[in-house]
Amino acid sequence: MSKVWAIAKREFKNYFVSPVAYILIVMFVLIVGLFFNFLYVTRFSYAQLDSIVYNMTNIFMFFSPMLTMKLFSEEKKLGTIELLYTSPVTVTEVVLGKYLGSILFFGVVFGIMLQFPAFVLIYGKPDFWPMVSCLLGFVLAACTYLAIGMFASSLTESQMGSAMIGFALVIFFWIVSIISDNIAGPAGNWLGNLSMSKHFIDFLKGIVDAGNVFFFVALSSLFVFLTIRRLEWKRW
Questions:
Q1: pLDDT, tens digit, 9 for 90 and up, residues 149-191
Q2: Contacts by 183-190 with C-beta closer than 8 Å and gap 24+?
Q3: Please, are residues 219 and 196 in contact by the beta-carbon 8 Å criterion?
Q4: Distance between CA atoms of 175 and 83, rounded to whole angstroms?
Q5: Less packed terminus of the chain by CB within 10 Å, N or C?
Q6: E strand or H helix that includes residue 10
Q7: Taking the model in full, what pTM does it have?
Q8: What's the rounded Cα separation, in Å, for the pair 147 and 215?
């Protein structure tokens, strides 16, 4: 566990080495702030927190592939991936460390974003637990985006290619319910159950269902596992 934490701290610090992380944070906050201003401040008593969180989740969908595109793509391009393979750490520890590092960076973004729910809580008097449910759904969805983006980064040494693949996968799992609506029978139902948006919507209604929580945890775990298998295959 200490090796995973050491890799996570290194990865977290690496985000702040280049100006990209700062630019992404500023852009994300500005865009969410504009939506917040339009949905809440200008229509104070009408907007609901679920609309704000829904937009936060959709916006982060576009930003997450850019946060994860360097995780393994840069290592491959620079050749430092070979150093990881020969270092006294396992592929699993490397993947878990990098994933945890990306989650820690997301924690910084999430901490900044809490100013908007805090404003609603202070001045709008919303129900507390539905607000917690909305934010929990956002965190679970964001962690799933990061796991998918990390897997995409393990597929190519091109950062741009990684971002595009990651975004395509995230979009697929978000809108797959639209595709499933046109497929009859068990296949359509099975495909529809893969939709993140279908499982996310209950959180916006203030419903924390164990099945929905399990879905996001399981999907994140799946892509972490696929990343490990991908790197182990390339290693040999």
A1: 999 998 988 888 999 999 999 998 888 877 766 666 676 677 7
A2: none
A3: yes
A4: 39
A5: C
A6: helix 2-15
A7: 0.88
A8: 13
